[in-house]
Amino acid sequence: MHTAARITGVLTGLTLTLGGVAFAAPAAHADIPACTNMVKQTGVEVSDAVRIACTQGVHGDLQGCASALTQVGTPGGAASGACRLAANPP
């Protein structure tokens, strides 16, 4: 009986640990704040268009992200850098 309780406890702990990893994993892929902060440092106001562009970067569309950021006034090099930050986990 004591062994069964120990096995149950270990399995419960393992389930909670793996479940926590599953919930944390998606957040690691998105770094929209880093992208928007870089845009803000160039003097461009962070608008919905900037957030949408950074979201494109998160989803791997770096060219679309950089193009959209450039259209709202972000200098080319900063736009590319911001999109790379969005695509890479922190």
pLDDT < 50 runs, ≥5 residues: 20-28
* Alpha carbon gyration radius: 20 Å
Strand content: under 5%
Give the overall average pLDDT: 80
The major β-sheet equals:
none
The computed structural class is mainly alpha
Shape: elongated
Instruction: Count up the helices.
Output: 5
Q: Sketch the topology as an H/E string, one letter per element.
A: HHHHH
The proportion of residues forming helix, as a percent range, comes to over 70%
Tell me the total number of β-strands. Answer: 0
How far apart the termini lie comes to 46 Å
Describe this structure in words.
The chain has 5 helices and no strands. The chain is mainly alpha-helical and 90 residues long. Helix 2 runs antiparallel to helix 5 and helix 3 crosses helix 5.
Can you describe this structure in just a few lines?
By secondary structure, the protein is mainly α. It has helices at 2-28, 32-41, 48-58, 62-71, 76-87.
List the helices and strands and how they pair.
Elements: H1 2-28, H2 32-41, H3 48-58, H4 62-71, H5 76-87
Keywords:
90 residues; mainly alpha
